[in-house]
Design a protein that fits this description.
heterodimer, A: about 110 residues, 7-stranded mixed sheet, 11 strands, B: about 120 residues, mainly beta, 5-stranded antiparallel sheet, about 0% helix
Amino acid sequence: DAGITQSPRHKVTETGTPVTLRCHQTENHRYMYWYRQDPGHGLRLIHYSYGVKDTDKGEVSDGYSVSRSKTEDFLLTLESATSSQTSVYFCAISELAGMGETQYFGPGTRLLVL
Amino acid sequence: GENVEQHPSTLSVQEGDSAVIKCTYSDSASNYFPWYKQELGKGPQLIIDIRSNVGEKKDQRIAVTLNKTAKHFSLHITETQPEDSAVYFCAASLRIGGGADGLTFGKGTHLIIQP
């Protein structure tokens, strides 16, 4: 998985609790992304980062926040989890490669919000 | 924003036959089109990609074609094998903030290889 780890790999939580997912890379890549995957929707971009402390919103960012204090770590936080945030979350990394970047994905975190 | 349509949602082929998956995109500014294979319980794995200055690319049994005028691209797998069974996703890339590229994915094709 291109030097990408995600933790935890599985989590069950209750509605209203905060949850933080971690993505760690050993590739020293500049760009990092969080996606969620749901049946019938493919993968959708939540937030992304283009450098330390540089982040921006993606297509489905409501209810999520991110932080990147080090090149290797990108955290995704659900401030108050809801059942609609039950999903599989994937982190991806890339390095600028001219026309289009190749994104490499981590193994995913399966989150269940009860 | 970009919209990517992928067909079919399920494709069943006999082992040894060819499989073709098709995608269309909406934004003519998209310039990079990767294909990912996802096995159960794993993250998507890049299998081939094509950039908008190229019409076709091949890697052994896998090929991708791109028609920029029609805004569609296709994945071709020849001589299919049981290990090709998986879900395949196409994606289109647009430049977003800070020089990053946002990928918009199709909804996936479940490819089943029948023995």
